[in-house]
Automatic annotation (TrEMBL), chain A:
It comes from Alkalicoccus urumqiensis. It is a peripheral membrane protein. This is ABC transporter ATP-binding protein. Belongs to the ABC transporter superfamily. Drug exporter-1 (DrugE1) (TC 3.A.1.105) family. NCBIfam families: drrA. It is found in: Cell membrane. The keyword ATP-binding applies. Pfam families: ABC_tran (PF00005), DrrA1-3_C (PF13732). It comes from the Bacteria. GO terms for molecular function: ATP binding; ATP hydrolysis activity. Keywords: ATP-binding, Cell membrane, Membrane, Nucleotide-binding, Translocase, Transport.
UniProtKB/TrEMBL annotation, chain B:
It comes from Alkalicoccus urumqiensis. Its main location: membrane. One of its GO terms (molecular function) is ABC-type transporter activity. This is Transport permease protein. PROSITE patterns: ABC_TM2.
Amino acid sequence: MEPIISVRGLTKTYKQTTAVNNIDFDVDQGEIFGFLGPNGAGKSTTINMICTMLAPTSGSITINGWNAAKQRGKVRESIGLIFQENTLDEKLTARENLMLHCRFYRVPKSRRAARIREVLEIVDLTDKENQRVDTFSGGMKRRLEIARGLLHYPKVLFLDEPTVGLDPQTRAHLWEYILRLKKKENITMFLTTHYLDEAEISDRVAIMDQGEIIAIDTPDALKRQLGGDIIELSSTDNEAARREVEAAVPEAEITVDDGILRIKVADSDKFVSTILKSLDTPVTSLNIRRPTLNDVFLAFTGRKISEAAED
Amino acid sequence: MEGIYAIWQRDLLKFFRDKARLFGSFTMPILFLLIFGGGLSGTMESMMGSMAGAGEGFNYVEFVFPGIVAMTLLMTSIFSSLSIIEDKDFGYMKEILVSPISRVSIAVGKMLGAATVATIQGIILFLLIPLLGLSYSIVSLLQVLPFMFLFAAALSGLGLLIASLIRSTQGFQMIVQVLVMPMIFLSGALFPINNMPAWMDIIVKLNPVTYGVDVMKKIMIDVDSLSPQVQNAMGLNLDVFGRPVTMIEEILFIAGFAALLVLLATFSFRRANA
């Protein structure tokens, strides 16, 4: 199957700096593609180029068979965009917002009413149809934006930090809607988020840093690449504990962070008893876990995403 | 076309929804009518009357009413076009800009929306005609409508051009003070533009609002029934640097001005939002 998005040799340079440096990647039809990276990595620049909002310095982008530089209108009809910030007209009702969108995207007149009903159902806002958007909660506005992004039957839905600024419960709900949507419309999703646990739902993730894509694979494969498990322990004297573990298990990778000793080993079952036996320093807590995308991000960029975000 | 229609329709929906704005926008013209029509009319009439030696024939309220309608068109057109700055601030502009509609359609849709809103405001002012005891003919009021729309479209184009040049709502007040107010006062909308100092006369003749106001007066006021002295006193025989202008020329000038501004606004809009 042809990839729905195909990016080749994409580069964007500003006067002094190269924001995006010769990147290539494909997004397959129907997958959830997580696009991760610290601020300033070139993520937004890349997305803006894919969405035809910014002209690349060089390279090519194909979406749904259309060339993003030459067939802007066709590309724009093929994609739906959910921005970080609210872009609804709050003085209008939900229905009026959706109707305007139908007109902007030339949804055939005969299908508008049915389509509006359909998307409102997906996001559970059917009964709020005729309410003004300024009476909506943050979560409802987000849902309405997702509904709006779907109206014109896009092939790819871009979700740029869709849960930013929402409380955890609303965030969890929103992901339920997004997954429901994927099932129902079999739509491709291009997702960016700062919450890496949310990116776990991706079929594949790409990690971008300093203008380049440094890793691209399924979340599981990326975690496997890290090799093994993580043993986190804290003790009364982390430095002493570190020396003791190093002596007992020379092949372990050890980092100290926030008063926690993070020990990476190939197989936690085999090493945990050895490590515990080797420790004379009293242990105050112990946690053994499989790597998460946070660990993957840390391993590839050398930073945690929360630190990177503060750069 | 659908895109132009959508943008136009949104402006109208919002206009009718925002009751405060709808109501508030009439305070200014009504205030002007009260001050100029009530307070100043006696003075103006005796002044103009004696100057022209025309005696009784000068009805100041009849003179100033089309000017105040024109003023309403000017203010509403400019402010409505400036709503695109608000759209930028509140994020909605992004929804429009990423859609497949062309930049030209966005500019034209906004211009037509602002012009329609302004024309509706002008028409609502017509309701005051019987209250003020004025006697414009129905025919002349119907005849002036298309011109009001054309004039409002030109002014909306101007508003759009300004909106694409200024970045914030703070620039708003400044625009009103340095542009809108002088455009009203130096247009013959509120007092006849006769015997002005030479430098001011130049500004008056360069001000497009002058010609819009003049056309509206010529259509609405029954010019032929007035004596030549009164016509002169009302400043209805407008000449540009010694050459008299006809109404057709003025209408063509406003149409050309509208076309030019749409072009400039579209161009500037594309550059600002590429």
